[in-house]
Amino acid sequence: MVLDAHDIYLTLWRHIVISGQSEEVARGLKACTADSEIISFVRRVADDSIGEPFELKELQGDGKNEAKAIECRKLGNEKFHPKIKEYVKAIAYYNESIALSKDGSETLAIAYANRSAVCYELKEYTDCLQNIRLARENSYPEQLLFKLDNREKDCLKRLAENDHKQLEKDDVPRKPKLSYKPNPKLPHISDCLELKEDDQFGRYLVTNRNLSAGDIVIEETPFSSLLVSDRRYMNCDYCHDDQFLTLIPCKSCTVTMFCSTNCQHKAMDTYHRIECSVIKDMQSLFTKVILMALRTTTTAISTFDYNLEELRLHVESIDEKSLNPFKLNWTNIDSKQVYSTIHILATNQSLRSASDLVQRSVYAIIMSELLFRNTELGKLCDNNESHDLIRTLLFRHAQTSPVNMHSIMFMDYTPKENEKYSQLNLGCGSFPILSMINHSCAPNLVRMTLPNGNVVALVNRPIKKGGQLFDNYGYHHCLESLDERQSGLLGQYCFRCQCEACKLNYPLFVNLPHAKFPPSVKPPIDYDEMDRLAEHDMATALRKIPEYCRFLNMFDSQYPNYEVSSVQEALLRCYQIVFSKQSRKVRYKDLCSL
Ligand SMILES: C[S@@+](CC[C@H](N)C(=O)[O-])C[C@H]1O[C@@H](n2cnc3c(N)ncnc32)[C@H](O)[C@@H]1O
Fold first, then answer.
1. What is the pLDDT of residue 165?
2. From what superkingdom does this record's organism come (predicted)?
3. Across-strand partners of 459?
4. Is the Cβ atom of 431 under 6 angstroms away from ligand 1?
5. pTM score, whole prediction
6. Which of 123, 182, 187, 186 is nearest to 155 (CA)?
């Protein structure tokens, strides 16, 4: 069995501890004056103590696999069976079969043909025709061609009769706008936001005007992004759209699919050219946080047109202490400068323990070895400096990723669960401005992903002029106890939280007191309306937004209480209904079992 990278680190660290070397290793790490020295030091310690930990002989690599493709197709057929009718699950298997099949093969053609049959049942006739074309372009068995011909005729007939699914106008998410004038140099953020820095908080964002619940103050595009691996047969690897009926596979690897040749080319240009031959092994070795370090590094390399010397000189020229995203003019910024703003994100390196630095060095060594052995980086890195560059970038981003990356979400249709729609993690991205926002366990904003992959910051508690914007890093007082929050934040983000919720020990949601309203105020939560929001009813969402915002602005002085927290949740749901990306699956709820 292949060990994952965390096991390799654990084996090494245990050996260091058991052999009584931990203090010596900590001293050795402290004495290093550059990241490249840290990595070399860890490599020496590893080679001396556990032999050749980075050989990774058990890794399987990747390659098309006809037998597995046929197996997946059979699983798809089971889900497609008229008594089962789990069409979306059938599609996931057919897509996997497509990704595993050799280009031009009969197996590939049959998987496309089977996918066309699902499209037909789902009344997606245009997609059905596209799959029929793809099946014919590959080696579909001659003797079965009549099936495709008949399905094609039926599709054309249905299209002529207009018997196909059309998006209801209300299903289409709207585009949000910034609530205040955009900053002339940073048009993706409101001009009221400023960057400050001090000893307690590091860099952080403040507002120079009063902000109200419901304001949208940032809409940011990620520099680099990653699709989680369990969505790889349902969503486009590049734009993350859930175009699962028409995904096309990478011709080489078996774990990457795209919604169009356009996205395929863009992915190739930005990261997949380097990652293609190693991404499957990387996925088996690393968590998404560390894969994000890989993605940010490969995106940086392509940003510099694979010119490693130029990238090295650029990185060396960055003045980390003084550069920040507010110093750049984003109206005509080039992507090399955008990378600079990702390069300077917090690493918290000086606060990390010896074992943490060993862990991240081990990850950087494993990733770089795989890249040097199996990708064009092996040839491109023709001197020690370029090898060091790749290792140190991976090491740096293995530290910036867990501290700064943000999730990319969408609203999945989950009719069998408590909530009909629930937020599903599609992946993650690196964001220069959003990464400047500090944490509070009682935050005053939430993040939301738009269908185009941008992430917006939505204010959900009023913020006074001069006040700091606070995000939540996954440790909210409503959901976690003070101890859990303090230790979680210290472990992952290296700071002791002193937010109002920690200082005043705000209760969990279940223990929140009720707000005191004047008799004229109607309770904000109406359970019928909540049911309609649970159904993602656009009209209800649009109607409730101003009401909820008024309530949050009026009663924030009584925070924390049950009503304000409930309305915050309900407001976020309304915004998700109006602006977020929603699963395409919902369109098929009456046609199959989901
Ligand atoms: C995403 S960054 C936020 C921007 C960061 N302050 C900077 O200077 O780059 C996260 C890091 O900021 C710091 N941080 C975030 N919230 C904080 C808070 N409430 N108090 C102190 N430090 C905080 C921690 O070092 C954390 O790892």
1. 55
2. Eukaryota
3. 445
4. no
5. 0.95
6. 123
